[in-house]
Amino acid sequence: MAMSFAYAPAPESRAVVDIAPSYGLFIDGEFREAADGKVFKTVSPSTEEVLSEVAQAGSEDVDAAVKAARKAFEKWSALPGSERAKYLFRIARIIQERSRELAVLETLDNGKPIKETRDADLPLVAAHFFYYAGWADKLEHAGFGPNPKPLGVAGQVIPWNFPLLMLAWKIAPALAAGNTVVLKPAETTPLSALFFADICRQAGLPKGVVNILTGDGSTGAALVAHEGIAKVAFTGSTAVGKQIARTVAGTDKKLTLELGGKGANIVFDDAPIDQAVEGIVGGIFFNQGQVCCAGSRLLVQESIQDELLDALKRRMSTLRVGDPLDKNTDVGAINSAEQLARITALADSGTAEGAERWAPSCELPSQGYWFAPTLFTNVTQAHRIAREEIFGPVLSVLTFRTPAEAVAKANNSQYGLSAGIWTEKGSRMLAVADKLRAGIVWANTFNKFDPTSPFGGFKESGFGREGGRHGLEAYLSV
Ligand code: TAP
């Protein structure tokens, strides 16, 4: 009998992940309900389907988690680095083994394309644990002085744009340095952190070394204010970052803040156009533009503006927007209705202030939260879409004539997180990079990440560095 095969690319099966109807908080190695029994729902932004019900941690739970982490700190910090490394290596390997399940989970809870969770998020998550596992027994050789000591309990608050990757950026260096952690994932993406809790148990990590508190902003606020915390690490909006800085002021808590951005992607007239177009598209449409270091301002040299914009529009017309579980999807769902409303309002302000809006014709699904890849030309530096972080798939195009003008415009921002330079001239690359007030500068590429490379901002993009050797310093008393 002839068998029939479907040749259409099938969506990645969600059957690879088993999501329970409800989850508790992960405190002292056990899942438990919130003390006051509160829960909230997490939905899939691409379908609005309720994925699960999750415990909402209150101040009593924060206190229990911090106490568990403090108790665990005594033994964890006294372990030889080589022993801590073994746990981190084990966690990294389990992440690799479970990466398909975790990629589908992250795509369901966040809305980002499976292509990205599978090929970017998950490999980077495992790489971070491998990388910091390697540091755990070499802290004396990290150049921080003879006897670096862990700080204690780190309170870590992360956003929804890269839930598991931001968790890895926070937890891997903290544990390698001998700290214990209490981490709060974002309200709209709690699931991968809870699966990570399960991975900690699978790896045999001692109880209380990692604690996961799901909840909302009030949970985050209670955590950073708790007196048992020695270090606060936050990634998210500049507004909340400033609030946290005020809470921490006057205490001896160490603080690192990784906040917003308005990255300039600068294209000079000698740049290879096709390569630059790929970098521009990846710079702003990767993760639907919900990336702190997104190249959300395109600065193009006036003489090549028409040629570049034609090529860019052609490329944008080929982007596939839709089901994030489909392996061919380039642009997935916006993470939440609130975020979609923010993007819509800012994009509308662009039109109202006189910029010219363009988007390829694409049919958006009727369920879920969607925004078509969008381009604005005739943008001035005064427009809100040139100044404010949109955190969505919206690119604002400005022009320049000279390198000095490009630098001035790129630096004309309250933010200073990322920038990109596209040119064939090595001397220009170095000279321009040197003048940019941005923590990360990419040359002839964009949105490239590596655990060995420090990441962080200037100005209102925050302070402190994550990744690389520098990322350890935030978790050590040196
Ligand atoms: P935030 O409110 O900054 O959320 C980041 C994290 O902080 C979440 O876990 C959040 O919890 C928690 N949080 C909220 N209020 C807090 C408080 N008072 N004290 C301690 N923690 C608190 O970001 P958002 O509302 O998700 O997004 C708003 C805008 O921020 C976006 O449009 C975007 O422009 C920007 N953003 C930037 C980044 C990066 S990486 N730079 C990341 C996310 C958002 P809940 O999720 O429960 O609110």
Automatic annotation (TrEMBL):
Residues 33-477 form the Aldehyde dehydrogenase domain. Keywords: Oxidoreductase. SUPFAM superfamilies: ALDH-like (SSF53720). InterPro entries: Ald_DH/histidinol_DH, Ald_DH_C, Ald_DH_CS_CYS, Ald_DH_N, Aldehyde_DH_dom. This is Aldehyde dehydrogenase family protein. It comes from the Bacteria. CDD domains: ALDH_F16 (cd07111). Gene3D superfamilies: Aldehyde Dehydrogenase, Chain A, domain 1, Aldehyde Dehydrogenase, Chain A, domain 2.
